[in-house]
């Protein structure tokens, strides 16, 4: 999936992946896609809930080599 911006939040503990994702998505235009990489297992539930509550869309999430990858479309 093509992203307009990639955010590396690997090695960060909660709540930093969400804090950095929020900061990055605020700099983007509506409809653009942010790809976030995180290693904190809690990020899966946290980012999904955050995207929904913020009016954004979690397009996809995968895990590769213990790195969680999320694609979030800005609302």
Description:
- Strand 3 and strand 4 form a beta hairpin.
- Helices cover 29% and strands 35% of the residues.
- The chain contains 2 helices and 4 strands; from the N terminus they run E-H-E-H-E-E.
- A 4-stranded mixed β-sheet has the order 1-2-4-3, with helices on one face.
- It has a single domain, classed as Translation Initiation Factor IF3 (2-Layer Sandwich).
- It is an alpha+beta fold.
Please outline the helices and strands.
Layout (H helix, E strand, L loop, with lengths): L4 E5 L6 H11 L6 E6 L4 H11 L3 E8 L2 E7 L2
Parallel strand pairs: 1-2
Antiparallel strand pairs: 2-4, 3-4
Protein name: Sulfurtransferase TusA
Pfam family, one: TusA
InterPro entries: TusA-like, TusA-like_sf
How many domain regions? 1
Number of strands: 4
What structural category characterises the helix and strand content? alpha+beta
H and E order: EHEHEE
Keywords:
75 residues; 2 helices; alpha+beta; 4 strands; four-stranded mixed sheet; single chain; Translation Initiation Factor IF3
Task: Give a brief description.
29% of the residues lie in helices and 35% in strands.
């Amino acid at each position: 999936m093509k992203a307009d911006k990639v955010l590396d939040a690997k090695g960060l503990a909660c709540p930093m992946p969400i804090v950095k994702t929020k900061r990055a998505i605020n700099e983007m235009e509506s409809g653009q896609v942010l790809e976030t990489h995180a290693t904190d297992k809690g990020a899966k539930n946290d980012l999904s809930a955050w995207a929904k509550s913020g009016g954004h869309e979690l397009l996809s999430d995968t895990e590769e080599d213990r790195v969680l990858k999320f694609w979030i479309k800005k609302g």
